[in-house]
Amino acid sequence: MRSVCPVPEEQQPLNEYQTLQDSWFFSWVCRPGLGYYRPLLWIWGLSWLIAAPVAAASFRPSRAGVEFIVSAAAGAALPVLFAQIQLYSGWRHVRDRLAAESVPYEESGWYDGQFWQKPTEVLARDRLLASYEVQPLLDRLRQSIGSCVAFIGASALLIVLLRAGL
User: What span, in angstroms and rounded, lies between the C-alpha atoms of 38 and 21?
Assistant: First the structure.
């Protein structure tokens, strides 16, 4: 199978999938349970080092403590959101290449793009992998991205309501 495939090893969808699974960053979403959320919580916690001083410039902690905490928490959530979007982008790219009937590739990197039509067996294997391995990861990411966006939006709404005196 690999001998007839003209796509360079590192550009083959199955190998791209395995590379993401083995990578330090992209493997986060593959971890069960809290294994996925732990690194995101670390990012959120470390982001407070930047978000808290910015929030303190807008809301003095001694006068507007709740607004300060809410705005710092929302600001610290932005790097978490960006990390999740990067994870989603990488996994979506691999899912799309696994599910595609043909794979674009570059042989030498000098704009000599080619397309390889996957044989039926390879296409069936890749689509199963895309459906049963990668799609659940994308669903998990989509859900956590939605939660993060909802948190940031609810925080902004809460600050507006607090500033309005409601």
Answer: 17
Tokens representing 83?
A: 């990390």
Residue 67, in any domain of the structure = yes
Is residue 73 in a domain? yes
**Predicted TM-score (pTM) of this structure:** 0.91
Residue 4 counted as domain residue: no
Alpha-carbon distance of 36 to 30, in angstroms, equals 7
Determine, yes or no, domain membership for 89: yes
- How does pLDDT run across 120-153, given as a tens digit for each residue? 999 999 999 999 999 999 999 999 999 999 999 9
Residue 132, amino acid: Y
Q: Identify which of 37, 71, 36, 31 has the alpha carbon closest to the alpha carbon of residue 53.
A: 71
